[in-house]
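Let us work through a complete example step by step.
Step 1: write down the sequence.
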Amino acid sequence: MNPEIHRLLHEDRARQLRTEAASFALRTASAALRSRLGWTLVEWGLRLVQGAPRRSPRIA
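Step 2: predict the structure and record it as tokens.
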């Protein structure tokens, strides 16, 4: 194989890998935010389902 072709193929593959790595970094940041937001909504939902704390009736 011609060394010049090999170098061009290598540079092309390196460019593809850099692009893939950059998109993965953006995706993981948004996934972490989405995960935190999801768990916060679950926590709020559980608090709403539980309702207000029950008090025992006072006898005067």
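Step 3: interpret the result. Residues 41 and 47 are 10 Å apart (CA to CA).
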